[in-house]
Description:
This protein is an all-alpha fold. It is 40% helix and 0% strand.
Amino acid sequence: MLPRAQGYKIIDETNTSETAAKMLMNGRFDLWFDGEELYVDALRLAGFRDSDVEVAFRLDLVGVHFAFSNGTSADIVRDWERALREMKRDGSFLKIYRKWLAPHQLPADVALQH
């Protein structure tokens, strides 16, 4: 767990982000560690708005990876890599990102000019 690896003392853990949101909002936690892609929906499911909390800081920027089964041909993996590179080059990745992931930090390898 990243917070523990960075020296934070974790005194309680939950099974879901929604439970953690409820515990934070009910004063059981002073600080909640969660992924930026998860916390807004967790708050909503718990009956709160994202404006009810303040994001204090980012521990780390974690990259997302595609995983393929061992049986996937190298050609298919290369096709995926090529398609993703092309989407980043032609601006279609940025368009999708702005529509679905706008509040999150843009990956460093995506050009902003599109």
